[in-house]
Amino acid sequence: MNFVLFASDFPGWAILLLILAIFLLIILGVMLLKKHTKLFKDDSKPKSEKEIAAEELNRLLTPIDEPLQEKKEGEDEDEKEK
Predict the structure, then answer these.
(1) What distance in Å separates the CA atoms of residue 7 and residue 15, rounded to the nearest whole number?
(2) Residue 39 DSSP SS3
(3) Where in the sequence is the domain holding 47, given as residue range(s)?
């Protein structure tokens, strides 16, 4: 009940300021946690451009299946005969 009386006497801009201050404290706390704890840190080293390019090529270039390759070779021979 006391909170209702307190909130009604409190100016609107001050409530907005109070909410903003709470969010800023939360943000500051998260930033400090990220900076000083190992919880959010990544221990992996950055990859070189060669490693990135090799992984991308391996991902894009898929090996050709043997039966599919033999079928295509058979079709090419049929076209040459014609």
Answers:
(1) 8
(2) coil
(3) 2-81
Could you tell me the two tokens for 28? 């500051």
Tokens encoding 70: 């033999």
> Per residue in 2-49, pLDDT tens?
555 566 677 778 888 999 999 999 999 999 988 888 776 667 778 889
Q: Estimate to the nearest angstrom the gap between the alpha carbon of 63 and the chain centroid.
A: 29
CA 56 to chain centre: 18
Q: Which amino acid is at 82?
A: K
Query: What are the two backbone dihedrals, phi and then psi, of residue 17, each rounded to the nearest 5 degrees?
Result: -65, -40
Q: Is the pTM of this model over 0.70?
A: no
